[in-house]
Amino acid sequence: MAKLPKLLIIDDDAHLRESLAEVLELDGFECHQAGAAKEGIAAASKIDPDAVIMDIQLPDSSGFQICQELRKRSKITILIMMTGRFLSSEEKKQGFELGADEYITKPFDLAELSARIKQLLSRNAAKGQ
After folding, report:
1. Per the domain annotation, does 1 fall within a domain?
2. Does residue 83 lie in a domain region?
3. Which residues contact 41 (CB under 8 A, 6 or more apart)?
4. What is the CATH number of the domain that holds 35?
5. Per the domain annotation, does 32 fall within a domain?
6. What is the number of other CB atoms lying within 10 angstroms of the CB of residue 4?
7. Rounded-to-integer distance, Cα 42 and Cα 54, Å
8. How many domains does the chain have?
9. pLDDT tens per residue, range 47-92
């Protein structure tokens, strides 16, 4: 059996986190969750996820800081930023410069999110060969 891609979801909204994990697990991902930045960074170093979906606004930090931290550890982990508000092009640019691969705005379509993650993972896999 092929190894399932590991996803880490970092969001302080437990309901959203659990819903995301539930849907993405049905779609063939192994999901891990964290409710805060510090917990997320610790989880990432433990499980070495293939992709991380993180909220930009967390109680103990920002998605931008997590993004920077995780990008230092891995050049290939896919980093997806989630936001509940409109982001200025300046903010998006900052995220991309810190290593974000993608932005999604809440509410978003879960099937679309899953497809984006799979697409990014397959692009990474192709690069790694």
Report:
1. no
2. yes
3. 66, 69, 70
4. 3.40.50.2300
5. yes
6. 12
7. 14
8. 1
9. 999 999 999 988 888 888 999 999 998 999 999 999 887 778 888 8
Pairing of strands 6-10, 51-55: parallel
Range of the domain at 16: 6-120
- Which of 6-15, 16-25, 78-87 comes out lowest in average pLDDT? 78-87
How many CB atoms lie under 10 A from the CB of residue 81? 26
15 vs 72: CA distance, rounded Å: 29
CB contact at 8 A, 61 and 38: yes
34 within some domain: yes
- Examine residue 107 and say whether the peptide bond preceding it is cis (omega within 30 degrees of 0): yes
**Tens digit of pLDDT for each residue in 85-129?**
777 888 889 889 999 999 988 888 888 899 999 999 998 877 665
User: pLDDT band at 20, cuts 50/70/90?
Assistant: very high
